[in-house]
Design brief:
12 helices, Rossmann fold, alpha/beta, 300 residues, 7 strands, seven-stranded mixed sheet, 2 domains
């Protein structure tokens, strides 16, 4: 997705908060914030990708704060919360099978996509998750179409997003592999980006039990051309369907669409993203998008 004016203070707010909450001294924080403003000034371009700027700024934060994983504790906390709620979800899922079960698993996964500290406009407490988790309310609902396409598929890529929700993403991955007989590749970041799941964390959560877990080769939030591994690039060309969790993947693929059909599963947490879909901020999205032919810019 290309920049909107409101994206500028949003990205600065998130990155500056990370600096302010770091262990730097007061003077070091002042210097770091000045440099952050300079970096963002240099990166901002009306035709630039929102995710590219956000990722480059996060790399700067990690460098200047000497902390490669600023959200480590948040990720651990949300994983614990999700695991605590998992038995309730599993009990509820016993009521369903086949397509109905798939649709309910997607609903839980998308509801858990609210576990995201990187959207300043999102007002949410971790304690709210339990009340939201089993709701089934979509502003864009292509779950039936996604399921029907999965019935015709053999190879599927599942792009992970945040910690916490990945506990519930695993339920979808296991369903695809064991109930539908699909070959599934789970793709995660090799290095930390905000509270997104890394390869190491995905394996620790058991996502490799019924799928092959691959790393993107980078810490970018989405698959911008030239920023991810050759292995993932080849998979994108050969798979039957890409299931992309999270808003960053949606933003990235709006800017640089892949060659395959994508099932986007996420919560539209900010106004600019919601407006691209004609929905209200906070809406649940299950969107099936066909491939778009283009020659995207290379960011490598």
């Amino acid at each position: 997705m290309r920049f909107r004016a409101v994206c500028i203070p949003c990205i600065f707010s998130v990155r500056s908060k990370e600096i302010l909450e770091s262990d730097l001294t007061e003077e070091e924080k002042k210097k770091a914030l000045r440099q952050l403003m300079k970096l963002l000034y240099e990166l901002f371009d009306p035709n630039q990708s929102t995710t590219y700027v956000a990722c480059e700024a996060f790399r700067y934060v990690k460098q200047v704060t000497h902390n490669d994983d600023p959200y480590r504790r948040y990720k651990e906390e949300t994983n614990r919360l999700a695991k605590k709620l998992l038995p309730r979800v599993l009990e509820e899922m016993k009521k369903y099978e086949g397509k109905d079960l798939f649709k309910k698993l997607v609903a839980v996964s998308v509801n858990a996509n609210i576990l995201d500290p990187g959207v300043p406009s999102l007002k949410f407490k971790l304690s709210d998750l339990e009340k939201l988790l089993l709701r089934d309310d979509f502003a864009v609902d292509h779950r039936d179409k996604i399921y029907d396409l999965l019935l015709e598929s053999k190879k599927v890529i599942f792009l992970l997003d945040n910690a916490g929700e990945a506990v519930f993403d695993k339920l979808i991955v296991d369903f695809l592999a064991t109930e539908m007989g699909l070959k599934v590749w789970v793709v995660a970041k090799d290095r930390p980006y905000q509270n997104d799941v890394t390869v190491r964390e995905a394996l620790k959560l058991g996502l490799g039990e019924n799928a092959q877990v691959l790393g993107t080769g980078s810490d970018y939030s989405g698959l911008l051309p030239g920023t991810y591994s050759k292995e993932v690039k080849e998979l994108l060309k050969s798979c039957d369907l890409v299931i992309a969790k999270g808003m960053a993947h949606y933003e990235t693929f709006l800017y640089a669409p892949p060659e395959r059909t994508v099932a986007h599963l996420f919560k539209a947490k900010c106004q600019p993203v919601a407006e691209t879909l004609g929905v209200a901020p906070g809406s649940n999205i299950a969107l099936l998008k066909p491939p778009v032919d283009q020659n995207p810019r290379n960011f490598g």
